[in-house]
Structures are given as C-alpha cells and as structure tokens.
Design the sequence.
C-alpha cells in the first residue's frame, strides 16, 4: 500500500467524477472520439472487453436454446408505425435515411433503434402452426438513437448490443422467458462482471414503448448513481395483434402468440469502469479482462531475463490471457500503463527473482504484493484471479450496502442525500404516477424499479402518505 | 446411388440456375425476404454458417497479429469527400441520413459503404511515431451499398463482412500485408470452404476506388460464371496524404505511412451454394456446416430406439456438431430435410441396426451408404467428414479445370463459349483498356484478374494482336 501513485495525469474521482470517467475511457485506450457527434471508435482494448462479454453471454443464450439471426438495419417508416405505442416511443429519436444513391425514398427508412417490428414482420412470415413455436432468437448488432447529450459507452447515438426476441404459444411461457433472461443477465453481471445488481420491475411511466411489463437490473455506481444494466420486456400479444401474427393451435384454432424481448449493451463497459475503477485507472474483473496477467521484465537487458519471461508466458498462456511486455519502455512506465488498463495480475521478473526461482505478483485492485515460487506460478495466478473476481464483487456489494437507505418521507430522502450523498433509496409508493413525479421533483431521485422484498419502511407512500402498493428503489441515474 | 430423389419441389440447376439458387436459399431456410428492398433476414441456419466462417477467419486474423475494433456506421459527407477517387467510386451508391430525430443535418451522413475514411481519421488521431506502427485492425460489421439489382447473399443493399485496415511504416510492409491477407483468404476458401480459387491482380479499370492495386480471389461457380470471393487492396500513401496522417520516423523526420485494406462478405455463403450445391439442395463443407452429422431414428416409437440415438448423440457431440432429430415427422421427411440443408453425414439408427450393433451412414455429397459398427462410429464420422471436405474440394477443382480454356483470339473465345458453355478463359492482353472493353463487348466475358503463370497462349493480345503484357483470366461474373 506504500507504493507511490504511478499515474499522475488522471483526475481523481473525488475531484470530478465525470472527468475521472472520461479520463479513463481515453487513457486506457477504450475509445476515441470521431467527427460524428455521439459516435465513437471502440479501440482494440475496449473491443476485446466487449468480445469477452459477447462470448460468455452468447454461450449462455445458446445453452438456454436461443439461436442467432441477423435482421436488416433499416426499418421502413410504414412498418415502424404499425404498433402505436412503440412508434410514439421511438420515432422522435431515430435517424432517417431519405435518399439511396440518386433515388429519393418514398417510404423513408429509419436506422433501427431496436428491432421489434422487424422480428414481428418476420414472425408473421414464418410462424403458422404450434409446431413453429417457440422461436428463441437473438442478434448482435448496433442500433442508433439520436440522443442530445452523449457520453462514451453510457449514452451514445450508435451503440452495440444484443437483442433477444422470442415468440411463444402461451402468455405463461413468454413471461417465464422474460424472467429467465433477466435472471441470466443478473447472474452474468454478478459472476462475470463482479457487479451486484437489483432485479425489479419498471413502473408504468418507465416501461418500454409497446411492452406490457419491463423488468430491469440496476447497479449502483461509485458515485452513488444508478445504472440500468439490462432490460427484459414482456409484450403480451400486443405486437402479434398489431402485426397480424397468428398460429393454428393443437385444437386447430387460429390464435395470437405472445412475445418477449431483452437486451444488454456496450453500456456494461461503462458500468464496469464506474463499479470497479479507482484513481489509478481501470480495474477489470478477470472474467472479461483482455489481459488477465501481464509479465513485466525487470532489468530486461540482463542476460536470461527475457528468456525466463518468455518461458513464464508459455507456461501461463495455455490457461490464461497473458501478455509479456518486452517493449523498450521503462518498467515504471509499464507498471503505470497496466495499472491504468486494469490488468488484474502483474508479474515482475528480474535477475534477482530468477536467482531465487521466484517472481513478484501484484494484484491490481488491492495492490497486494507477493513473492511466488516459479514452480507454483500457474496455481498462484489461478487462485489470485479467482480471489480478484470475488474480491471485486464483495467490495462493490459492500459499497452498495453502505449506500442503500430506507426512507419513509421525501424529507427523509432529502436529508439522507444531503448527509450521506447519492445512493439507492428504498421507499414505499402508492402506485400513482403523480407521486412518482413529485418524489423526483422534491428530491431529485427517480424510481428505478419495483422490488419484492420484505417491506422495510411501513405501509405508507413516501410521497402522499396513503396506503402503499410497492416497494421501490429510487436513485439518480445514468 | 439408386436412392430416389427425395426433394421434389426444387428447380433443377439445368432447367433454371437462378431459380435453383433462390429455391435453395429459401427452402434450406438460409434467408427470408423483408419489406426493405434488397435487405434480408439471415435465418438461424444461414447465420450459423456465417458464425463458423467468422470463427475460423477471426482466429486466423488474430494469429497474424490483427486486433478487432469497431468504427461508427456513419460517415459525414465532408469526411467521405477527402479522397477524391474514393468518393467518386462510392458516393453514387450510398444511403444518406439527412435527419436525426427532429434535427435536419447540416453535414449529411452516409451509412458506411466501406470504412477507409473512418480508419484514416482515426489513424490521424493515434499514429504519431514509428512506435505506433503498424496498426493491424479489423472489424466485423455490416455495410450498405444502394444496388439496383439485388440477390440474396450475392448482391444486397446491406451485407455482413469483415474489413481489415492496416497502416505501416513502409510501402514494402503494406504490400506484404496486402499479399499475405490475400493468401489467408485463398487458403481459407480452399481448406475450409473446399472452394478452389485463383489469386490475381485486378486491372486498372476494376480496382478499388482509391487503391494503388487491388488483388482478388476468383472462384468458378457451377454454371461457369466467376465469383469474386475476396479482395485485398494496397493504398500506397494516397489516403495518408489525403487525411494528413504523418508519423515521426527513427531519423526524426515526419513522413507518410502506407496502408492496406481487405474484406470478405456473406457473399461467401452464395459461393458455397453455387460451388457445392446440387439438385437436392445445399451441400455444406464440414468445416462450416452448422450440423456436421444428423442422427435420424428409424421406427422411433419402438422400444430402445430413442435411447440408443441419444447415447449416440452424447458419444459424438464432444467432437462434432451433431443434431438428433426426434421430432414426430416421418423418417422420409427428415431424410429430405437434411439433404436440402446439406448436412454432410446422416446417421440412421433403427431396431434392426441396434440388434446388429451398427448404424447406417450416408454422406450427402455422393450419397454413399455404409454400415458402421456402433463401436467404431466416432472414428468413422471423423474420417467421413475429412473425406467429404476433401471430396468436395476435388470435385470443385475438377469442375473448374474442365471449364478452364485457353484462347488466342476473341473468335476462339466465342466458339469455346458457344461449344462448351461458360467458364474461365485464359488469354493474353496488351494492357490497353480499350482492348479490355472490346473483349467484353465481343464475347461477353470481362477480365477477372491478371495472373502470373507460365504463358500458355503465345505473346499476342487476344484482342488487338499486339505484343501482350499480361495473362488474364476472363469470365462472366456474379
């Protein structure tokens, strides 16, 4: 812990959290800005995190019976308009293609902000009998939403995501799917991203345009703000009716099927930064870190050092994602570089270590240093990575618990926020949208989701005092 | 060979090749049309082929030192215009976004038809010193080109591809990269897609807009037409000059770097269909087949059959992509279905087989039937898949050799085409664009690429008779 701060040019979290965030995304080489406002280049190190997220999630989607497809990126305006709530929600924020080559388009095309209507059109073509159900589809693509204010990963005009779209014979099956995929997301965030999340249901005012119900996972960032990390929607048969999707059931009757959709985005990378990062830069959970261990030669010019480092790399790379940095930068520069990049384990190896048949390991998140016998390095790295993964989760969970408060009135909310700073506020709600708005107005926190938990704070609405229906988590949010 | 034709509703190749092709893409459930002209849904079975292509190529790209990134899908018109040949080539065929939300865009955005200018803008930001070179980048995305006539996989307004973009300190390095990646493509097509290709250089009139040289691989389809299966471009320092990308070299001088780009697309799926398919449907090379072996229970209701099939599946799925079809369709229906879908090996297992501790295997491409002892099934499937992969390549190569002709005059070309049908014509060329155009006009075949091969047909231009400079492969093309 006595090690001196190696990276000097990053703003501290305390000083300016927003600046700290953008310093990291730039200096850890996750993104670079472009001349297209609100769109970014995801650089190799950032994209490798996304590839790891994709690989793990895609496997889980396939294990739960889903298949990947690819829909067009364009939606004709006439198609978008078929489901009235959906178009109302999305039309104001889409990009319009009005010209193709030298042709002015009669039916202009929007660049997909989400693909429900394309899946619906397709389902209408291919779903005819109960034998055709369910269809459990997913796609990995980018979508466009014309946001006014943008921030890398958190809110951009184009972002990468996966969107699952499923169609089922019964409402029960579709609801089960909606909940199952929310569970997959929550488990993925906790196990792979080491990020604790709360599962809940969105209020009416906050649900997806066209959905009967929207479920979400919410995570708490370092600064006490909430981040919606994934959503799962149940559509009932509303889209099926709007798009005339019908199938013949076992009783030979034509009926409407039921649908769901669910998605997570590159926003998760922003969530990782703001959950685990510190004033020295990024801190990555081993499960998605592009480099899990970096080997840094000490006194590289000395005989035998580089050879031994290469041996070590060969030994480790069968099991881990390992990098040996044999560039001619100084060891100090390298320490700072891989701290900034959040590599979970650093291995230092110099002439003295070689003599003693050992190496030095440092774990990024707590800077614990250890001397490890070279004969034991594979096991040591394995257990360290597991410990880091757990350690990050425990640390984040502790932070969330510390910043979770129960409040009975809006005054209480205000005094908690003033005294302790932002966080998750658990408070009861009567279910009236007016109260929801009023809480936001009076305190600045909005409803994140309705949760089912032992009622902790009486039975009166935090706003109007009337009998409450729901326990709600409130917070300021990204 | 005596087995009767199981799929009755597909047009035969002889009768109508174009209809045969679209029958397959629809009936093998590779794609479905949408209401967006020229854009398609790639269905699970089609997308799984693409995922296999991606997996194999992505591994090869990474093994050759490339990293994945992701650029925006939009290009501001002002950025597109910076390299004059490039904009001239692409501007007429792009889709224009002119509106975002309620905002009319001052600098309209085109949906990327290719991303050279975005990579150049990025390189100008991040390349400053010789230490920053080379950058070996790739991205897997979709691009849009406003084609007038479209056909699934072969020519569509949106298509999936990968685009490699690299930047190097020297021209030699960039040329080496351009050639190396052409080699990777050729090797991939031959080894994984079982599709023989010719490597060559495009003539001036046919090169990529903005390139100094374009190299391509050309394959011959069943109907004797050529298909360009991949391209690799050398840019010299032309883009670097247009985008003001400079780096400080080891001698501390500011100089321009050199670039390349290279790509293959979902067109490869069309190439697979037209190289290996037959009148019973798709025939897939095992390396990219979503299902390598399908198990079909015979007399499924009989005791023990399904259990044994499941055992067999468990046995095989550790090593192969296997499907057991235990649906209640008839065995005959299933035979036809998986023939249509081009599954390389079919395994039939019924009560009599179980009694004799054996199963029946049929290989799709030659319909060879064999009785295989169950104890030997893993080895048998392994060697059959290898044999199919080789067999497909040999068959395709034989077809190409049979349809390759050497001609000394345009009259000879015409009589060969009339007598033997379409194919690759090898003929000499003086290098004059007028002759290139005239050959096309007189015979219908265009130059596909310049190859370096022992001169087979004298030293006079096939058109003007003057001294020739190049041996060219000519063909009608997709």
Sequence:
């Amino acid at each position: 812990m006595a090690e001196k701060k190696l990276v000097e040019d990053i703003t501290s979290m305390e000083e300016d959290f927003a600046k700290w965030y953008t310093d990291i995304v730039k200096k850890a080489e996750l993104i670079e800005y472009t001349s297209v406002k609100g769109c970014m280049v995801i650089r190799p190190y950032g994209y490798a995190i996304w590839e790891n997220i994709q690989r793990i999630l895609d496997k889980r989607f396939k294990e739960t019976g889903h298949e990947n497809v690819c829909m067009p990126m364009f939606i004709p305006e006439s198609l978008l308009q078929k489901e009235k709530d959906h178009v109302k929600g999305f039309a104001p924020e889409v990009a319009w293609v009005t010209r193709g080559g030298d042709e002015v388009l009669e039916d202009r095309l929007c660049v997909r902000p989400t693909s429900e209507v394309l899946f619906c059109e397709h389902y209408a073509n291919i779903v005819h009998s109960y034998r055709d159900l369910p269809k459990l589809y997913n796609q990995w693509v980018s979508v466009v939403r014309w946001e006014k204010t943008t921030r890398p990963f958190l809110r951009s005009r184009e972002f990468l995501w996966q969107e699952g779209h499923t169609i089922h014979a019964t409402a029960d099956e579709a609801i089960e799917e909606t909940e199952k995929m929310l569970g997959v997301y929550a488990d993925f965030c906790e196990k792979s991203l080491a990020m604790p999340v709360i599962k809940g249901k969105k209020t009416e005012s906050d649900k997806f345009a066209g959905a009967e119900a929207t479920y979400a996972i919410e995570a708490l960032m370092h600064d006490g703000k909430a981040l919606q990390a994934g959503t799962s929607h149940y559509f009932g048969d509303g889209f099926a009716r709007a798009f005339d999707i019908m199938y013949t059931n076992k009783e030979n009757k034509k009926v409407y099927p039921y649908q769901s959709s669910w998605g997570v985005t590159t926003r998760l990378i922003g969530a990782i930064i703001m959950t685990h990062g510190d004033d020295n830069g990024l801190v990555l959970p081993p499960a998605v870190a592009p480099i899990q261990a970096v080997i840094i030669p000490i006194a590289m010019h000395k005989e035998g050092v580089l050879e031994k480092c290469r041996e070590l790399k060969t030994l480790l790379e069968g099991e881990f994602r390992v990098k040996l940095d044999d560039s001619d930068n100084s060891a100090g520069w390298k320490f700072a570089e891989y701290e900034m990049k959040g590599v979970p384990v650093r291995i230092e190896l110099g002439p003295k270590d070689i003599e003693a048949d050992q190496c030095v390991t440092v774990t990024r998140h707590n800077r614990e240093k250890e001397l490890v016998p070279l004969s034991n390095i594979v096991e040591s790295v394995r257990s360290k990575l597991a410990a880091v993964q757990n350690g990050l989760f425990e640390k984040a969970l502790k932070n969330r618990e510390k910043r979770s408060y129960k409040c009975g009135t809006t005054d209480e909310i205000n005094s908690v926020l003033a005294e302790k700073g932002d966080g998750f506020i658990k408070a009861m709600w009567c279910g009236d949208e007016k109260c929801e708005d009023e809480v936001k107005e009076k305190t600045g926190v909005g409803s994140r989701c309705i949760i089912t938990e032992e009622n902790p704070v009486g039975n009166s609405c935090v706003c109007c005092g009337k009998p409450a229906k729901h326990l709600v988590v409130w917070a300021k949010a990204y």
About this structure: The radius of gyration of chain A is 25 Å.
